[in-house]
Amino acid sequence: MAQFDPPGGQGYPADSARRASGCSVGPEPPPSALAALARCVSVEPAKFAAAHWGQTPLLSRAAELPNPVGFTDLLSPADADELLSRRGLRTPFLRVARDGQMVPAARYTGGGGAGAEIGDQVLDEKILELYAGGATLVLQGLHRTWPALIDFTRELSLAVGQPLQVNAYLTPPDSQGFDTHYDTHDVFVLQVDGRKHWRIHPPVLPDPLERQPWGGRADEVAASAQGPPALDVVLEPGDALYLPRGWLHSAQAQQDSSLHLTVGIRALTRYALVEELLALAAQDRRLRATLPFGTDLADPDAIEPELTETVEALRDWLLRVDPAEVTARLRQRAWPASRPAPIRPLAQAAALNALDPDSHVTLRPGLRWQLTGDGDRITLRLFDRTLTLPADCEPALRALLTGKVIRVGDLPALDTDADRLTLTRRLLREAVLTPTPGPARVDGLH
């Protein structure tokens, strides 16, 4: 699976050539990340990458997956009920679909009563009416709102090296929320509760971009859906299904209600490289040149010489483009799309005040980073900011970036505990590190 400066230091690391150049990123995906992937696919990661990633669907039955409780630990029907009734949920964190159409939000939202008069809060009695009448409920953005899915999504994102999003679909018995369609991103479908009948057809447009949604090809999609499916299967609790973008699908709940999670993979594409290359091409004066005075834009003969010269100029520029500039732009695009683990601001502030040489800290889980050195300074690039530190901090910083739990007084290469505390306070305040209990003592040793 090809990777370019992954959407985080804790994705797939740079190769030896990049490490030799003084640029480094984070470690290989941890075992917890690979365990998250193993919950979604029944084959080894290498086989999944070679045979299925971006190419063909993969059905994984519950018996083939290491999920003794299926996926109810991530979001159960009772959890969904809590979100719909007790969390002050607002749009767009909920959508409602019926008969293939979205229900206007005004049908199920309103004010939350005294002190909570915001007018787009989900009203549980309205949701009951719609759901009991056959509407499908779509809980959106659960990778930002539900703790178990926040953690699971972060780990899975490290395994695939791409930003993820999670929605939940609650469908009443014998109902279908959406007509046959395709998504513009890959998905893992995780069946939590109930049974759902899926019909999968090959793409009418392989590898569609986000700007190429299925609605623009509705007639082709409908015609293709009339043919024999490539996969016709009922998902049971604990089953998982991987679908590459573009594959047509429809799903209908069976005799009981159904709850499944859809993990959307917002993978970057080669077209993203093209977009960034074109953005950088603005540096070339030949490509910024004005078309000749009086050019008839409707005349192909008038445009042809300008087109020829433009293509030549673009080709010349592409041959000398700096890959480092492209990767820098890709980093700015991809890194903010994957949040690191949440921090507790109050606890973090208290740890800052109580910090001493015996305190223990660790790297914030899921943090994307890149470390470079230049003379007497080192630069730590994060998903939302850049930190510059003295070069003599590099050994201590590299020790912290391993992700191991470290006692502040044991940080290497700094002369005094005061220097170690100064560096650690800076990194705690910048949310690079988090406080953590020290190793447990055993038989009087630690």
TrEMBL record:
SUPFAM superfamilies: Clavaminate synthase-like (SSF51197). Keywords: Iron, Metal-binding. Residues 1-28 are annotated as: Disordered. Gene3D superfamilies: Cupin. It comes from Micromonospora qiuiae. Its cofactor is Fe(2+). This is JmjC domain-containing protein. InterPro entries: JmjC_dom, NO66-like.
